[in-house]
Amino acid sequence: MNLEQYLDSLRRSESANIRALIERPEKAAKFAEIPKALGPELRRVLKERGIEKLYSHQQQAVELYLAQQDFVVTTPTASGKTLCYLLPILHSKLKNPNGKHLFMFPTKALAQDQLAAYRGYADALGMSWNVNTFDGDTPEEERRAVRKAGDFILTNPDMLHSGIMPHHTIWKSFFENLETIVIDEMHTYIGVFGSHVANVLRRLNRLLEHYKPSRLTAIPGSGDPATSMSRGPRYIFCSATIANPAELANQLSGREFNAITESGAPEGRKYFLFYDPPFYEKLQIAESPYKAAARIGSGLIRNNIPTIFFARSRNRVEILTEFLRSRLPESLARKVRGYRGGFLPLERRQVERSLREGTTLGVVSTNALELGIDIGALNAVISIGYPGRMSSLYQQFGRAGRKKEPSLAVLIASPSALDQYLMRNPDYLFESKGEAAIVNPDNLLIYQDQIKCAAYELRFQQGDKFGEYPVDQFMDNLVEERVVLEKGGTYFWTSDTYPAANVSLRSAATDNFVIVDKTHAGNEKVIGEIDLFSAPLFIHDEAIYMHAGRHYYVNILKWDERRAEVTEVKSDYYTDAHEKVHRSILHLDEKRTEKKLTQHWGEVTLRRQAYLYKKIKIETSENLGWGQIHTPEIEMHTQGAWLDILPEALPQIPANFMSALLTRFAYLLRQLAPLVALCDRRDISVSSSYRDVHFGDHAIIFHDNYPGGVGLSHKLVSNYDALFALARQTVEQCSCEAGCPSCIGVWDAKTDGDADLPDDLKSPVRVLLQNLT
Fold first, then answer.
1. DSSP string computed for 453-511
2. Which pLDDT score, from 0 to 100, does residue 225 have?
3. CA–CA separation, 386 vs 418, rounded Å?
4. Which of 454, 589, 650, 710 fits as disulfide partner to 440, beta carbons 3.0 to 4.6 Å?
5. Which pTM was predicted?
6. Strands (DSSP E) along 78-144, which ranges?
7. What's the confidence (pLDDT) of residue 218?
8. Dihedral Cα 418, 412, 342, 620, nearest 10 deg
9. Cβ(684)–Cβ(677) under 8 Å?
């Protein structure tokens, strides 16, 4: 069967569980003439590649570049965004052979993926330009050659931060001749990562001003020798769909941007299927969404339809890979691969290559494959659970149908309130313009780390600014720490330390743990790594660590050595760890009472402690037992905000039920918060407290899951009315009588206490929401 025949079959057999099937028709291309300014050589190369005209958004990008404008492109996956910046840059390089161009991608894999394409254009133009990647895998000898004569340099934020800018004196020629800075996959630069990257670009702008100060230059074709102010190299950003592309580009770079948001690229017919797994009345349990994904996905693979699956965690990648293989004959099972963080680079490259070559028919990934790595033509994508951000879901859905053929995108719901809301309101995803992405470059912890890096690179003067703030107080603190010397109003870095080496852009924790396979005596090998906050949950003693379809038993976690030693085993269960979080108020910044509640904004301290794990049978999800976890407590300071509900808004229920009511209310808000905060569900936590001396008598507490915070909890409390409106709609639309995982959750003695609760807590939650909205 082809894809549409299989979809027809699926529609007949699964009609009871298909909540919506939306067809988006083919879209014709909108073409534009290739600007004559690009010259005959570039036009020849394009013609040789079958390109007689540009898509309208590509032509718009070229014209903006030629007009010396910064711009950001936010068009769908596979719409030809690369040519938006590559064509004008090739033209610029032909006009000025000494010009240099920097391309920054969020991962090494993306940079490597683009390398061959850029070199192909250079070769076609008959130019011997030096097109190179510069990352942690680049050999030292090659690094010297790139520094000396690199024309196009493809790198990532981490390498720019720690491998290029701290050594800028040996990059002098590159910075003096830099004409363009391209930043791809801009939508990934949010939260902690984006806040760090914004500071990295602040540092880059300081260096550019040092080597290539702003000066008056002529506008091309104006005839006026000095008619505009040059701001140094042009910035070009490319992004998935978000609501505020120009604003985010400005927050990251400090520049003003033109936004290109309308795509002229053609699109094949696309089907969007919303699938809610069946509920078994006798067992009072729904089918696992991963079992449903394996059932639907194995049918696609049996019909030779290349499919990508997006799972929500590393463990789930491994579990779904097993489920799929178990439903397929051996000849097809071999063509199903996993792909996730923690795999070593060689493993990931092998999977990418096998997808391009067609030897892999199914790949199960975390969000690692959302980005634009070339993995060939896929016809179907199955996303298990809403990934937390619309831009992520758009990227996942965009992975199918990249060759204008009919394609299928499936969203399989978990029982969570958020997923169920989308099952009942699928138009929400298509009517939205995406999220407004958030960064907070002035997060104190991030800013302090980055200003040290900036001070190491170039001296600050008294009264200078870094970002929006004067540096004097920060420099004076560094003087006290004896890493900076102030003399005559100038701050000199004097320490032997190298600050960028100790600042991670991507993780709240600076330490990673390595996972060492000791199955074969005398032949131990590192099979993966994991960050500090995840280590207690995934590689504690006696955990089952899953990697590339294999199971490993954790013999010992050596905390101080940041090392876990594992042995390969055959296991029919996986481990699921739980942690306790204790919260306290570090500082109250603002307090305001309105309507029937009091809003609070401040900073909180979290103490996180993993304490037990469950053994979960892979086939049935049955709990086979539990064990204790003994790892150190981890402390974190972050932004928090909380709502204290006033007594007049509360429903009339006995006092001993109130704690459970607030717990159920917090559960509901936690499920829906990503739609309002526009974040991944792992970025934010929501909890409740009853008669708490710190937070209040009837409090709902929000906190960011990053050290220092990035403003998510503050945004939620400031927009609580939108969150409450979603919550009320969810409760009223849910068909259950007394509460279920799809609205307020279900009774759990560990979280709700031991009191005899009423059969129905849903009605009091509904009354509470009616009082608050």
1. HHHHHS-EETT-EETTEESHHHHHHHHHTTSEEEETTEEEE--S--GGGG--SS-SSS-
2. 37
3. 8
4. 710
5. 0.78
6. 100-104, 131-133
7. 39
8. 100
9. yes
Task: Give the residue from 290, 477, 485 showing the smallest Cα distance to 384.
Answer: 290
Q: How far apart are CA 509 and CA 389, in angstroms?
A: 23
Burial class (CB in 10 A: 0-12, 13-18, 19+), 197: buried
**Distance, CA of 48 to CA of 121 (rounded, Å):** 11
List beta partners, residue 583: 606
Half-sphere exposure of residue 164: CA atoms within 13 angstroms, side-chain side: 31
Dist. CA 43–CA 574, nearest whole Å: 57
Q: What are phi and psi of 311, to 5 degrees?
A: -105, 165
Of the candidates 124, 122, 127, 165, the one whose C-alpha atom is nearest the C-alpha of residue 147 is: 165
List, in order, residues 6 or more apart from 660 with CB less than 8 Å away.
747, 752, 753, 755, 757, 761
| DSSP assignment string, 136-164 | TTS-HHHHHHHHHH-SEEEE-HHHIIIII
Report pLDDT for 300. Answer: 96
DSSP string, 220-247: TTS--SS-EEE-SSEEEEE-SS-S-HHH
pLDDT at 510: 55
**Given strand 563-569, what is the order of strands in its sheet?**
525-531, 512-517, 563-569, 550-558, 544-547
Whole-angstrom distance, CA of residue 654 vs CA of residue 10: 49
- Cα distances from 485 to residues 78, 378, 416, 740, in angstroms, run 52, 58, 55, 62
Domains along the chain?
3-25+269-431 (3.40.50.300), 31-260 (3.40.50.300), 444-500 (1.10.10), 512-571 (no CATH), 589-604+639-772 (3.30.1360)
pLDDT at 566: 95
* Enclosing H/E stretch for 268: none
The sign of the torsion formed by the CA atoms of 74, 76, 79, 82 equals positive
Using CA atoms, how far apart are residues 205 and 200, in angstroms rounded to an integer? Answer: 9
Q: Is the alpha carbon torsion for 533, 535, 541, 545 positive or negative?
A: positive
Q: Report, as ranges of residue numbers, the positions in the chain whose pLDDT lies below 50.
A: 215-230, 508, 749-752, 754
Identify the H or E element spanning 38.
none
In this structure, the strands spanning 152-155 and 100-104 are: parallel
Asked if 551 and 515 count as a contact pair (C-beta separation under 8 A), the reply is no
What integer pLDDT is reported at residue 211 of this predicted model?
Answer: 92
pLDDT of residue 758: 63
Query: Tokens 């299989």, residue?
Result: 6
How far apart are the C-alpha atoms of 260 and 421, rounded to whole Å? 31
Alpha carbons 738 and 317: distance in angstroms, whole number: 33
pLDDT at position 402, please? 63
At a CB cut-off of 8 Å and minimum separation 6, what does 213 contact?
none
252, 242 Cβ separation under 8 angstroms: no
- Helices then strands (H, E): number in the chain? 25, 36
**pLDDT at residue 376 in the model:** 66
E strands, 340-489, in order: 362-365, 380-384, 407-412, 460-461, 465-466, 469-470, 484-487
- Give the ranges where 612-758 is alpha helix by DSSP (H): 658-677, 712-718, 720-733, 749-752
From CA 63, how far away is CA 67, in angstroms rounded?
6
